[in-house]
Amino acid sequence: MKEEFGTNNARRWYDKDPVLSSAMKTLEETKDDTQIKIALNLIKIITEHNLEESKYEDVSEIINATEIDLASQKRNRWYDLDETLRTAISMLQNCPEDTRSAIAVEMAKMVVEEIKKDEEEEEEDELDKLIEDKDEDK
Predict the structure, then answer these.
(1) Quick one: which of 7, 87, 88, 131 could link to 39 by a disulfide (CB 3.0–4.6 Å)?
(2) Residues 6+ away with beta carbon under 8 Å from 27
(3) What is the rounded CA–CA span in Å between residue 70 and residue 58?
(4) What is the distance between the alpha carbons of residues 51 and 49, in angstroms, rounded to a whole number?
């Protein structure tokens, strides 16, 4: 029988949550600049959640906890190539499971929104190029 999400045998820590797993897979496949935008937003969201829940008293405590964790981690995962992305994902991994689940939904929405923006920008760039080419032909 095939393993279901939520078991302890998930390959990666984020595969335990199907929304988070899907968001991470999509994030992995996006452009580098999109990944960084999302990482910066994630850092902001995670910081806000941790402060609201009084897990940490201030931002410096959150940063210190993340730096300790980052120092002990391997650096061969897809999100380790960029320090901002690596920090955001590490912060997410260190969140309590219920907080991580809530953030996963926000993250999934961000990923979809950023991909849509990128696609719209690409279409606009293509249209601008066609107009420019047409004007040059005249």
Answers:
(1) 88
(2) 35, 38, 107, 111
(3) 19
(4) 6
Instruction: Indicate whether 105 belongs to any domain.
Output: yes
pLDDT at 69: 66
Within-domain flag for 93: yes
Q: Is 34 exposed, middle or buried (0-12, 13-18, 19+ CB in 10 A)?
A: middle
| Domain encompassing residue 54 | 17-137
CB 30 within 8 A of CB 103: no
Question: What are the distances in angstroms from CA 83 to CA 4, 57, 88?
Answer: 32, 24, 9
- Global model pTM greater than 0.90: no
For residue 104, how many other CB atoms are within 10 A of its CB? 21
pLDDT at 65: 72
Averaged in consecutive runs of 10 residues, what is the pLDDT profile of the chain (138 residues)?
46 91 92 92 87 73 71 77 89 86 90 87 82 76
Q: Is residue 94 included in any domain, yes or no? A: yes
pLDDT of residue 68: 64
For the chain, how many structural domains are there in total?
1
Q: How many CA atoms lie within 13 A of 114 on its CB side?
A: 24
